[in-house]
Amino acid sequence: MNYLKLVFLVLFVIPSVVVGQKVVNSNFLGNWANSGTGAWEYGFYEDGAVACSDFWKYKRVEFGKKRMEVVLENGNQTIALKIKQGKNGNIFIARDGAKAEEFRPCNGKNFVAWVGVDTVSFSRPLVITDTVTIRGYIRNLDKVTHPALRGYTFTCSYNGLLGEDGGEIVAPIDSSGRFTLHFTVSAPQRVILEWGRMWKNIIVEPGETVLLYADASDWKTVPNVSKEEMINGKKDVLFMGKNARFHQEYTCFPYPLWMRDMYELREIARSDMEFLRLAEADYLKSVACFDSICGKYPNFSKRCREAIENEWKYYFAATLMQNRFNLGRRQRFEPEYMEYVNAHFSVNEPLCYFITQRYSTFLRDYTGYVDHQKFRYIEGMGMAYIPDDRFYEALRRLKEGGRFEELTTEDIATCENINRKILDLSRQQIADTNAFQAVIAGNSMLYGKLNAYRSIPEVREQEEVITREYELLLYDTLVSDLLLKELCYAQLFMTGMEYDHKPLLPGMMKLADARISNPILNRKVKETSAVYQKIASKKLAYEASLIDVGQFSHISDADSLWQALIEPYRGNVILLDFWGSWCEPCKNMLALMGDIEKVFENEKVVFMYFAYSSPEEAWKNVIKEFDLTGKNIVHYNLPPLQQQMIIEKMRVRGYPTYKIIDKAGNVTSRVLEYPLRPQSVINEIKAELERE
């Protein structure tokens, strides 16, 4: 009898103590939110726990009837927890000897409002640069069976600070479903988190640490579910960290798939105002959805309201301004259209630049629309702009600085006046050469003498600086917020470098320093300039690829020119690429060509590139950047008139354009469309090589 009592005590009274235990009491497994705040603070799983935005191991587990004591370990840190069951499935947790708090089970599928009011504002942008850390735990990853979902990687992508290509960080997910990644930001930054067939948009701030929980059981694919269900269907996703409330609230909103884009609306709208009203109806539907959710959960945080309201508002605004690309020769919207835009939206919302996806698009297209008013339709040319000549202003500044003492101020003024009259005749589309000769009469030698200064590098540099000053005036006029204005300035310098594909020269760098006082933006511009300086300093691996086009200068008809260009390469299959140094899609495709060229480096294949409207320096720098030289590579940068002859002969309608020439020099019917798929290009070239 005594023996049986002893056995009973051992089995049912003495608590269990297990060191390195992997399985905790099943009553305590899962995620737990603080009942007093609504914050997810703990997660207990079979092989570990999460707390304080980090992963923890079970160092010691002791459990008995309706209770458990756990020591969690992370490196040199430990957390001691005393846990006991409460009523209605809740539990009480006391941490490191503190008073116990009540916790309830939490599931990200069903949104539960947080307790209390959150009036925290977003941090000030572009004050500091700091690291963001995202840790994650994907539960039930081992149960995923669909091949498309077994990539076991987590991707975080975000736009560049100044609209340039942003970053994409891919972190491997380990066998237990955990991952960690780091990246730096200088402002509240909208990022896209992707894993499997799930994705979430969140807004992170410099220095923030986010812990993400997701259940892989929720991963769904089309056609098993609809696109709507795949995107907006309920999923068990939770966030931990100082901004967890904002992240949880922000990600609970369904994405407004009913908001049509510019392409969809232009197919049905018959006027500017009908386009506006259709877009407005979509936006108001989103507002009604937002108001309905806010009515149900009135304690939404200030940041959540601000982010959602502006995200949808400036999606609408960007759609309205993108409609400018449908104007054609009309050039201007109906007056009521821009009156509506000016009354409802602002180009002075710096925070929206960072926390919304489309504000920068709206700002770009709004300022672009205003700037485009200096263009006008010219028959046979389309929309064209004949700018004022900055050459004489450049001469005047350089003379004031002590250069060109041989020139008088009166000579510069005389030639500037002549040039202004010539530009006026050009804008009026006057074709009579006598009219131009009459303007120059009596001053032809002086006019020719000064024009010779156009080729001097320091004059060209000064012209570029003056032109950029006039471009900056657009933002001085439209944008009053200093931070947003400097963002626009920096973006203009960045896009200018990308367009010209060269670094900032000293005069332009001095202008950038004078206009951009924010150290983060200023540094970004200088870092980009350094990248282009490095490209410009590279040596061409095979200079013979760049053909001296002076040998063709005597040819004045398209057919003869074309034959002269391809004659040395007859007997080869030729891939033609018509591109421009200013053309972003062209350069995106050039980045792919190197690997394609290597496939055929020992074959009778020639890659022939025709640059269009590309200054020589920019042309060479693009070739250097992508290492596009070799024995089977040919580059032509013809004079403008000859460029146009070839463009018209080959019926080039846009850039980039690709064609395949057979061994006899004939244009084939093989189609290579943008965007290029490398394997398709390889297959088409091989097929032409094998053709008899």
Automatic annotation (TrEMBL):
<dbReference type="InterPro" id="IPR012336">
    <property type="entry name" value="Thioredoxin-like_fold"/>
</dbReference>
<dbReference type="InterPro" id="IPR050553">
    <property type="entry name" value="Thioredoxin_ResA/DsbE_sf"/>
</dbReference>
<dbReference type="InterPro" id="IPR013766">
    <property type="entry name" value="Thioredoxin_domain"/>
</dbReference>
<dbReference type="InterPro" id="IPR036249">
    <property type="entry name" value="Thioredoxin-like_sf"/>
</dbReference>
<dbReference type="GO" id="GO:0016853">
    <property type="term" value="F:isomerase activity"/>
</dbReference>
<keyword id="KW-1015">Disulfide bond</keyword>
<keyword id="KW-0413">Isomerase</keyword>
<protein>
    <submittedName>
        <fullName>Thiol-disulfide isomerase/thioredoxin</fullName>
    </submittedName>
</protein>
<dbReference type="InterPro" id="IPR017937">
    <property type="entry name" value="Thioredoxin_CS"/>
</dbReference>
<keyword id="KW-0676">Redox-active center</keyword>
<keyword id="KW-0201">Cytochrome c-type biogenesis</keyword>
<dbReference type="Pfam" id="PF13905">
    <property type="entry name" value="Thioredoxin_8"/>
</dbReference>
<dbReference type="GO" id="GO:0030313">
    <property type="term" value="C:cell envelope"/>
</dbReference>
<dbReference type="GO" id="GO:0017004">
    <property type="term" value="P:cytochrome complex assembly"/>
</dbReference>
<feature type="domain" description="Thioredoxin">
    <location>
        <begin position="535"/>
        <end position="692"/>
    </location>
</feature>
